[in-house]
Write a structure and sequence with these properties.
14 helices, seven-stranded mixed β-sheet, four-stranded antiparallel β-sheet, binds pyridoxal-5'-phosphate, alpha/beta, Aspartate Aminotransferase, domain 2, Aspartate Aminotransferase, domain 1, 2 domains
Length: 413
């Protein structure tokens, strides 16, 4: 069982009456993670993999230890982990690295975050690929049979968010992974909202790529992860090249300007994919965040947030004028409630919650414009109000949200 009151003491920004319900955008950070950043800058501040002196070797050791923890967290090997700056960067790296040709199809869903959409739209314009949309409707429930019908011999890549950042609905990624594997289709999983809540196993999912951000799972900003299945990590030419990625010691060219890039020997994995100085303190701090997260345990996280979720859903469904988006069964959504109140614009509800009730929620389209275009009437300002829960939130906080929404709903009658 999670001792939430004790755990809240680990988070320096939890104080006073303010309630933080926007962990989907970015989670709070425990002090041990902040301390590890301070420790790097005050005790062993040096670059990694660049120097054979004590400070650099200490930094490299801590850095590599953290990358190992990242790999273990998702059941990958060290060679399959590419350090990026966030999920967006990770997905762009795949989009820039894969070879597409005109007519290739990419299948995604209308629930995708812009980060898993715009990089593919650029390829649509540049290369002439075709993006196809699976629309799971207002409830956001995934129908595998309908989805399967959209796969064609031209589908080169399926790219899907594991947990929707708008609804908290969950995509059956293991089943999608099987469909893709049987057809030789590449599969990318946007796990930005999944890694903070689920034990991920890339082997079980059977994906080729998986992306997530540390700042949504109690870690620092500025650190993203791209998992690349080993065979691709070995065979693909990274989009970003430079310091550290080429093995100059093995290069037979007299100077690099006469080098043929195809004849170059790349650094061993995963350094082939690590162009330039990586985010050192952020990677080390992510290792500390992983220790903290796994110390709590995914089962405890799930039990706690599922309890908050069902309390919130029970309360919201009983308030008149509240229109809930996404699955109505609490167990079908992960830590997110999203709703509108009567005909009040979501931004107005967000403002009142902030100014009159000290509750931080997100109001707007949550970077998923296509979903709202599909499910809201034309002319409506796209979006809704989203409250998201994590390990440090309490039942009392959920009750304060419900009371506040009830009062706001009376403004619309
Ligand atoms: C599902 C999903 N994908 C991608 C992103 C982008 O994450 P980042 O801003 O860390 O790149 C987010 C951010 O909210 C998200 O919810």
């Amino acid at each position: 069982m999670l001792n939430v009151q004790k755990l809240r003491g680990d988070f320096p920004t939890i104080n006073g009456q303010n309630i933080y319900f926007d962990s989907v955008a970015s989670s709070l950070t425990p002090m041990v993670v902040v301390d590890s950043i301070i420790e790097y800058y005050t005790k062993y501040r040096a670059n990694v993999h660049r120097g054979n002196y004590d400070l650099s070797m200490q930094a490299s050791e801590k850095f590599e230890g953290a990358v190992m923890k990242i790999a273990k967290l998702i059941n990958a090997s060290l060679e399959e982990i590419v350090i990026t700056s966030n999920t967006t960067h990770a997905i762009n790296e795949v989009a820039l690295t894969l070879d597409f040709k005109e007519g290739d199809e990419i299948l995604l869903s209308s629930l995708e975050h812009s980060s898993n959409l715009i990089p593919w739209l650029r390829l649509q314009k540049k290369v002439g690929i075709k993006t196809k949309w699976y629309n799971p409707g207002k409830l956001g429930l995934f129908d595998l049979n309908e989805f399967e019908k959209m796969l064609t011999p031209k589908t080169k890549l399926v790219t899907l968010t594991f947990v929707s950042n708008v609804l908290g609905s969950v995509v059956p990624v293991e089943e999608v992974g099987k469909l893709c594997k049987a057809r030789g289709i590449l599969f990318l999983v946007d796990a930005a909202q999944a890694v903070p809540h689920f034990k991920i196993d890339v082997k079980k999912i059977g994906c080729d790529f998986l992306a997530f951000s540390s700042h949504k799972m109690l870690g620092p900003t500025g650190l993203g992860v791209l998992y690349i299945k080993k065979e691709h990590a070995e065979n693909m030419m990274p989009a970003f090249l430079g310091g550290g990625t080429i093995n100059t010691a093995e290069c037979h060219c007299l100077s690099l300007d006469s080098c043929d890039i195809d004849a170059c020997t790349f650094s061993e994995l995963p350094y082939k994919w690590l162009a330039g100085t990586p985010p050192i303190s952020e990677t080390i701090a992510t290792g500390v965040a992983i220790d903290y997260l796994t110390g709590i345990g995914y089962d405890n996280i799930h039990e706690h947030t599922a309890n908050l979720m069902s309390r919130a859903m029970k309360g919201l469904t009983s308030i008149k004028n509240v229109d809930i988006y996404g699955p109505l069964k609490a167990e079908q959504r992960n830590s997110i409630v999203s709703f509108n109140v009567g005909d009040l614009p979501p931004s107005e509800v967000g403002r009142i919650l902030n100014e009159e009730f000290q509750i931080s929620v997100r109001a707007g389209d949550h970077c998923a414009v296509n979903y709202f275009k599909d499910v809201q009437a034309e002319g409506t300002a796209p979006g809704n109000v989203r409250a998201s829960f994590y390990v440090y939130n309490t039942e009392e906080e959920v009750d304060r949200l419900l009371n506040a929404v009830e009062k706001i709903s009376k403004l619309t009658v």
